[in-house]
TrEMBL record:
Alphabetized UniProt keyword annotations: Hydrolase, Magnesium
Any one GO BP annotation for this protein: riboflavin biosynthetic process
Stored InterPro entries: HAD-like_hydrolase (IPR051400), HAD-like_sf (IPR036412), HAD-SF_hydro_IA (IPR006439), HAD_sf (IPR023214)
Keyword Cell division found: no
Cofactor: Mg(2+)
Identification of the protein by name: 5-amino-6-(5-phospho-D-ribitylamino)uracil phosphatase YigB
GO molecular function: hydrolase activity
Length: 239
């Protein structure tokens, strides 16, 4: 654990989910593959579109509607719907298919291997201070066994604009009933988590399990208050 500033007394913690409490990278790979497998099985005409075509379409529709980046579930739905419409589907048929495809992707999205250490640390922390989760993703915290530790899970899209926007941080502070400076936000992303926390008055803990070097990170704009490579040291910060 490395300290960059003296910490204010910590009266609550907020956590990012993806790539902070578990490794989300293989989950996303499997979820993407599930979409392509589903398309191949149920909508074989989609073989005319390559993966690169789908990725290009995903970026194109986000450029046309930037708000989609604040709701990854809706973004996925729109991707499937618009992709199928480009293949000749009528709107109603494309919408029906997109709902089905989204269900398939989300089922895989919620197959997450949460480490036992994450459960141990969160269980102990939850007995000491209030915990709340703030995520830009669309994992279901209850389905992966983490919802039990949090008083609330705030999700971008459903609950407001994605981090680093103020929406979810402001709601978290209001729900916790605490001044932002007494809340420590823990997350792996230097922009959405560290930058978002600091810009919104929270203390920031950078979860750096990949052992990256802060001074060489191009996205580093705001210095975290502390840096950890494992979750367990958080237990020493709250009594």
């Amino acid at each position: 654990m490395q300290f960059y500033r003296n910490l204010q007394p910590i009266k609550a913690l907020t956590f990012d989910l993806d790539d902070t409490l578990y490794d989300n990278r293989p989950v996303i790979v499997r979820a993407e593959q599930a979409m392509y497998d589903w398309l191949a099985e149920y909508h074989p005409c989609s073989h005319t579109l390559t993966r690169q075509d789908w990725m290009a379409l995903k970026q194109h529709i986000a450029m046309a509607d930037p708000m989609l980046k604040h709701d990854v579930t809706l973004w996925r739905y729109e991707l499937i719907k618009i992709g199928l419409m480009q293949l000749g589907y009528r709107l109603a048929d494309a919408e029906k298919a997109a709902h089905h495809g989204l269900e398939v992707v989300l089922a895989v999205r919620n197959q997450v291997n949460v480490p036992a250490e994450t459960h141990r640390v969160l269980s102990e922390l939850a007995q000491r201070v209030p915990l709340l989760a703030i995520t830009n993703g669309n994992v279901d915290a209850d389905k992966i066994g983490l919802g039990q530790y949090f008083s609330r899970v705030l999700v971008a899209g459903r609950d407001g604009l994605a981090k680093p926007a103020p929406d979810l941080f402001a709601q978290a502070a209001a729900l916790l009933g605490l001044p932002a400076e007494h809340i420590l936000h823990v997350g792996d992303h230097l922009v959405t988590d560290v930058g978002g926390a600091k810009k919104n008055g929270f203390q920031a803990c950078w979860y750096n399990d990949q052992l990256r070097q802060l001074h060489s990170e191009p996205r580093s704009r705001l210095l975290p208050d502390i840096e950890i490579s494992q979750l367990a040291p958080l237990l020493t910060l709250v009594s």
